[in-house]
Design a protein that fits this description.
With 389 residues, the protein is mostly beta strands. It has one helix and 29 strands.
Length: 389
């Protein structure tokens, strides 16, 4: 176990070092930059936003009430009963809301489990904590299935569960599948919209693993596809089944981009747009608007959010490389939309808060403020995971 722990720490520290280097170089050159868009929805009502502390001793979810105008008010802190890792997950999907908004799933990579909460407005009730493999970092749901991404070198793969009507997870026997590379340093696991495939991004080696979902809920072995861009981090599926992947582009500065793919025969990927660059550094998180017209990415080292235009033919075009700037030390990570994509939220790891934006019909963003600073989220110390409705 000591050797495994040392190996995990080596990979995590190595990737964090790349980020620090990119961040310092970006600051020195002095470049100043001052997820989904659609028209305002008159029926959009109040909701909630949830952010995770990822503290090593007691991982917590910080809950916010979302007003109808998009502003946030912190309402509670809820222990997962598990442990984070104290440094950012380097993944997307560590905190995932069920599509019915009744259940919230929180990964605890430090204690190797997933916590399930029942959701009532912004109030959470812990109903389960279940073993989920070695260092669970991302979770995806489709129908009555869930798969968890395990990110350690010792357990580099994904493992399956059935999801009950009560939201609880039941392990599927013999469901663990290894990734195609033992050192992939994965970024996210995602079901395709039809639930027939699962895609996992791999930053080291720039790979995309595709698994076919069988009738019994278990998966095929991984089929490796080459990424069109360098260090694919996270992903988002369009409703038509096309896949968008954001690439960090590290170790090179200003090299972040977004690629789009067709998913063929359930396991193969065909490139539509190859790494549409945004001029930013370390692009890591991506979301798509409910109306499928825009995508937004968060760029960790640049402190920015980039906006993209999505074409009907699957192509992706840069709209604004710096659609929003939260500060060079803000370290933007996870993105999440309110229901209907009227508001976009961005977890700021460096600031220890959640930035809120109104999404306009043309894909531009109006800043509403930063909420929750000094109220539970750690500052520059690993906060990871964001979910909203």
């Amino acid at each position: 176990m000591k050797d495994q722990s040392r190996t995990k720490k080596t990979f995590r520290n190595g990737f964090t070092g790349l980020r620090r280097k990119a961040f310092l170089c970006f600051a020195i050159v002095g470049i100043a930059q001052t997820g989904h868009s659609q028209a305002p929805d008159a029926g959009d009502t109040a909701g909630a936003v949830f952010a995770m502390t990822n503290r090593a001793k007691d991982n917590e979810v910080i809950a916010f009430h979302r007003a109808a105008d998009g502003t946030l008010n912190q309402t509670g802190r809820y222990s997962t009963g598990g442990s984070g890792i104290g440094v950012d997950f380097d993944t997307q999907g560590g905190l995932t809301l069920h599509s019915n908004h009744r259940f919230l799933y929180a990964c605890n990579p430090g204690s190797d489990n997933v916590t399930v909460f029942a959701v009532d407005g912004s109030k959470l009730t812990r109903i389960q904590r279940v073993y989920a493999g070695d260092q669970p970092l991302s979770i995806t749901l489709s129908g009555n299935l869930a798969y968890v991404l395990d990110g350690s070198v010792a357990g580099n793969g994904i493992t399956g569960f059935t999801v009950g009507d009560d939201g609880k997870l039941t392990p599927i026997p013999d469901s663990f599948r290894s990734l195609s590379s033992d050192i992939a340093v994965p970024g996210e696991v995602q079901f395709s919209p039809d639930g027939r495939s699962i895609v996992v991004t791999g930053k080291v080696g720039s790979i995309l693993d595709v698994f076919k979902v069988r009738a019994d809920g278990r998966l095929s072995e991984a089929v490796q596809n080459k990424s069109a861009g360098r260090r694919p981090f996270s992903e988002a599926f369009r409703k038509d089944g096309r896949l968008l992947v954001v690439e960090s582009g590290l170790p090179f500065e200003h090299n972040a981009g977004v690629s789009s793919y067709d998913l063929d025969t359930d396991v193969g990927l065909s490139v539509i747009t190859a790494s549409a660059k945004n001029g930013q550094t370390d692009g890591c998180w991506i979301v798509i608007t409910n109306d499928q017209t825009h995508a937004f990415t968060a760029n960790f080292a640049s402190g920015t959010i980039s906006s993209y235009l999505l074409r009907d033919n699957g192509r992706v075009e840069l709209l604004n490389g710096a659609a929003a700037f939260s500060g060079i030390t803000s370290q933007p990570t996870d993105l999440a939309f309110s229901t209907g994509s009227k508001y976009l939220y961005n977890l700021l790891r460096g600031t220890g808060g959640v930035a809120a934006f109104r999404v306009k019909a043309d894909g531009s963003l109006d800043r509403l403020g930063v909420f929750g600073v000094g109220q539970g989220l750690p500052r520059a110390n690993g906060a990871s995971g964001l979910a909203a409705y």
